[in-house]
Design a protein that fits this description.
Elements: E1 13-18, E2 28-29, E3 32-33, H1 39-48, E4 51-56, H2 61-73, E5 78-82, H3 91-94, H4 99-116, E6 119-128, H5 137-154, E7 158-163, H6 166-174, E8 184-186, H7 193-201, E9 205-208, H8 216-223, E10 230-232, E11 260-261, E12 271-272, H9 281-292, H10 296-311
Helix pairs in contact: 4-5, 9-10
GO molecular function, one term: metal ion binding
Family: Belongs to the metallo-dependent hydrolases superfamily. TatD-type hydrolase family.
Organism: Talaromyces stipitatus (strain ATCC 10500 / CBS 375.48 / QM 6759 / NRRL 1006) (Penicillium stipitatum)
Length: 318
């Protein structure tokens, strides 16, 4: 009817990769308490723009337990991943009691917290040949394979990391994905068009954040990710969209983020400069919509459905 206005649909986001266990989200930087713990404010800011689900990344046994604790503290909003990051693969060789003890502890944690509903994915696991100085290639390969087998046993979808290792990464995944009905997601994707296409062909979803939107080549890859295979993340406190990134030009008409101040000047309600946080997921979705030539509502709806279908997150999939 003439004169009627249509209310815009409320956007819904899942931040599928957020490192809420990082001390900076508690006001601690390099071991020094600079300002008060503002984790609750960070989560509330995100909720205010429709980001109501958060997947807190586990990067080793300790951080996985910490992620589970945050999931326990924020039921219905925060969920954990459990696993050992490729750059931490050396932990298997230094763990008290040996590698088999660490694998057993991961199994016990994953099974118990899957049952309680706190853990929704096995990860962050994968390969990173850009940072072999942190964990050697042989160690990464051995423990990625072992953790993939553990994920199949526990029957959790995968939360994956791949850097400069596509051939080995895809080879190890191919023989196991048919035993994981809900597959998995390659997060913080920065690979080539060909790599993205191969991963999609394997049935995997692709996680996009600010690091996935740095260069014109990155943007071209994201443009071609099928909407039914895309999920959105911030990977905070890292991977913010910076003014120097190719994606920044698409933010001129985006709703501004809350004011950001230096950490020493912290005040309630403000972001911290250089500390990415979940509220910024709105800008990631905005850029994806712009480069794909679709509405942000369409991007958000697709990403939400993809995340719920794969990880559950206390919701029923469409």
């Amino acid at each position: 009817m003439e004169g009627e206005t249509t209310e815009p649909r409320t956007l819904k986001y899942v931040d599928i990769g957020i490192n809420l266990s990082d001390p900076v989200f508690r006001g601690s930087y390099h071991g020094k308490q600079v300002h008060e713990d503002d984790l609750a404010d960070i989560i509330e800011r995100a909720r205010n723009i429709g980001c109501t689900k958060f997947m807190v990344t586990g990067s080793d046994l300790k951080e996985s337990k910490h992620a589970v604790q945050i999931a326990n503290d924020y039921p219905g909003s925060c969920y954990a991943t459990v696993g050992v990051h490729p750059c931490q693969a050396k932990h298997f060789d230094t763990h008290l009691g040996g590698p088999s003890k660490l694998l057993e502890e991961l199994r016990t944690l994953a099974l118990a917290t899957k049952q309680s509903g706190h853990t929704v994915a096995f990860g962050e696991i994968g390969l990173d040949y850009d940072r072999l100085f942190l964990s050697p290639k042989e160690s990464q390969l051995k423990w990625f394979e072992a953790q993939l087998d553990l994920a199949v046993e526990v029957q959790l979808p995968l939360f994956l990391h791949s850097r400069a290792a596509s051939e080995d990464f895809e080879r190890l995944l191919k023989s196991r994905l048919d035993r994981l009905p809900r597959g998995g997601l390659v997060h913080s994707f920065t690979g080539t068009m060909e790599e993205m296409q191969r991963l999609v062909d394997l049935g995997l979803d692709i996680g996009v954040n600010g690091c996935s939107l740095k260069t014109e080549e990155n943007l071209e890859v994201v443009r071609h990710i099928p909407l039914d295979r895309i999920q959105i993340e911030t990977d905070g406190p890292w991977c913010e969209i910076r003014p120097s990134h190719a994606s920044a030009k698409y933010l001129s008409d985006a709703s501004p983020l809350p004011k950001a101040v230096k950490k020493e000047k912290w005040q309630k309600g403000c972001m911290i400069k250089g500390r990415n946080e979940p509220v910024a997921i709105a800008h990631v979705a905005h850029v994806i919509a712009k480069i794909k030539g679709v509405s942000v509502e369409e991007v958000c709806e697709a990403a939400w459905n993809n995340s719920i279908k794969m990880f559950g997150l206390g919701e029923t999939s469409n």
